[in-house]
Specification:
CATH class of one domain: Alpha Beta
Radius of gyration: 25 Å
CATH architecture of one domain: 2-Layer Sandwich
Structural class: mainly beta
Helix content: under 10%
Number of helices: 2
Order of helices and strands: EEEEEEEEEEEEEEEEEEHEHEEE
Strand content: 15-25%
CATH topology of one domain: 30s Ribosomal Protein S19, Chain A
Largest sheet: 7 strands, antiparallel
CATH superfamily of one domain: Ribosomal protein S19/S15
């Protein structure tokens, strides 16, 4: 991905950095696209706004993407690499040997003229799709790498020159476009730059580490594509002006404190008045920070071995690389103190304000909320239902 930096000749081009798209200027294939009516624009069936800041945008043609990769044991060649307005990853057109033509997600490092194939006994090569059951328990074999001498994620290296002829996927392989249900098509790790890691195999399941840090069990019969999704530098773009964001179908974001009381709970008052509440809320009155949105007792809870990386832990790991340690503000009272937190100062909310506490080795294993008591104690254990209000 090539980032084009604008000159600061006008206010609209100042600090602008966009994708030049010099290598993806191809027209889509007519039989693989269809028009779609982007109805709703964030409204439900009654016309009420349920998802804010959506509306407008340029017209789009939807590209039919092959997430199933069910062309088994038939080699295909990458003909074009194209831009898709419906996703931040690029797509590539594949011409198969039987005459079939399909779009797939563009793997990082794939070029025009490369060949790919899907099946149960195919080489471990970038862009090839195969089931997770084709896993080698031997760790002596080198995992598939995505770019030469470049650490992409969790120590997974990329090597385009070496093409493995083995049909067993070694542990530590970088994969994307992962199925959750057999035959439904890939649903995980499909965004630009996304990559998951194959950790272990046991019984009928395979253990994967997803881009969010979540460790999850997936059926070994489900398929995945080897490699990483392309367009890795998409997070380096800076649109530079509001008009470019409107082309994407995103409306301006307005603060609640400048609205009227009828529009937002934070609105109203004379001049620059505070929100008038202990905690920020959504336009519908629910807590805006820290409220759990995941359904309780969901069927997939038993498949998740470890939840995604905690925001508090991300802040601590970021500060460990710096010489000066700043005060970390957190609302997580139920978090368990681990050795990584020793030496940091964490400000925990007690229901009224944030109180800083210095973490020592004697506090390891306890909850953060135990050292910042509240007026009405609600408990800090995960099994305590009172703390989930």
């Amino acid at each position: 991905m090539a980032i084009h930096l604008y000159k600061t000749s006008t206010p609209s081009t100042r600090n602008g950095a966009v994708d030049s798209q010099s290598q993806v200027k191809y027209n889509p294939r007519n039989n693989l696209i269809y028009g779609q009516h982007r109805c709703g624009k964030g409204r439900n069936a009654r016309g009420i706004i349920t998802a804010g800041h959506r509306g407008g945008g340029h017209k789009r043609l939807y590209r039919k993407i092959d997430f199933r990769r069910n062309e088994k044991d038939i080699y295909g060649r990458i003909v074009t690499i194209e831009y898709d307005p419906n996703r931040n990853a690029y797509i590539c057109l594949i011409h198969y040997g039987d005459g079939e033509k399909r779009y797939i997600l563009h793997p990082r490092g794939a070029r025009i003229g490369d060949t790919i194939v899907s099946g149960t006994e195919v080489p471990i090569k970038m862009g090839n799709a195969l089931p997770l059951s084709a896993i080698s328990s031997s760790t002596s074999r080198k995992p598939y790498a995505l770019e030469e001498a470049c650490t992409v994620w969790e120590g997974v290296l990329i090597d385009q020159k070496e093409e493995s002829t083995s049909t067993d996927m070694p542990l530590g392989t970088a994969i994307h476009n992962i199925e959750i249900t057999l035959g439904k098509g890939g649903q995980l790790a499909r965004a630009a730059g996304a990559v998951a890691k194959l950790i272990a195999k046991e019984g009928k399941s395979a253990t994967l580490k997803l881009p969010s840090g979540e460790v999850r069990l997936i059926s070994k019969n489900c398929s995945a594509t080897v490699g990483q999704v392309g367009n890795v530098g998409v997070n380096q773009k800076s649109l530079g002006r509001a008009g470019s964001k409107c082309w994407l179908g995103k409306r301006p974001v307005v603060r609640g404190v400048v609205m009227n009381p009828v529009d937002h709970p934070h609105g109203g008052g004379e001049g620059r008045a505070p929100i008038g509440r202990k905690k920020p809320t959504t336009p519908w009155g629910y807590p805006a920070l820290g409220r759990r949105s995941r359904k309780r007792n969901k069927y997939s809870d038993k498949l998740i071995l470890r939840r995604r990386t905690n925001h508090l832990l991300k802040k601590i790991n970021k500060l460990n690389t710096k010489a000066e340690k700043e005060v970390i503000i957190s609302w997580s009272r139920a978090s368990t103190i681990i050795p990584t937190m020793i030496g940091h100062t964490i400000a925990i909310h007690n229901g009224k304000e944030h109180l800083p506490i210095y973490i020592t080795d004697r506090m390891v294993g306890h909850k953060l909320g135990e050292f910042v008591p509240t007026l009405n104690f609600r408990g800090h254990a995960k099994n305590d239902t009172r703390s989930r209000r």
